[in-house]
């Protein structure tokens, strides 16, 4: 639809007569395909896609939501190894997901329809804060119920719960739970014993936060 609209507006601008109107290119390139994103060594985003036939450059658009509105953030004609077109995003806010799509532009400034939109997030380079508000509550039937507050950082990926196993080896990993699940039920407790717990948060880079406060859970016999 974009290509058609552009072609129509160009038609309206035709010179009146006497020039080589026939040779004017009104055909937009095909929409780019294969848009993909990877996180590079600088923790920035490398977008690559397949070249469109007839294109001389590409416009990159970014939005905060999948359905837009999209704003143009760059033009590129760079290519990556393998001949795909390359755009590196170093400007989006770290830890937030954005949506990206690209268009192909030809020598006559005809613009293709947009590619499929894909999400991308520049990972946080700093660890998340320590999880807050950890409590351990005895559940007489099921075990010890841990609960803590959700971290506020947008790119927390998961939480680790560690517990002191009374085996002389110190604290060890008990479980990992995904973002949004700030609770865990420890069912492998020994009646009549106490267990100690703390929780950490991992961000999108896999960097682990400092530990929460340590709490004790006691399971009666
Ligand atoms: Ca919780």
From TrEMBL:
Keyword Hydrolase attributed: yes
Record has Hydrolase as a keyword: yes
GO terms, molecular function: hydrolase activity, acting on glycosyl bonds
Keywords of this entry: Carbohydrate metabolism, Glycosidase, Hydrolase, Polysaccharide degradation
One GO biological process term: polysaccharide catabolic process
Domain Fibronectin type-III, first and last residues per copy: 130-221
Gene3D superfamilies per record: Immunoglobulins
Stated name of the protein: Fibronectin type-III domain-containing protein
Source organism of the structure: Streptomyces filipinensis
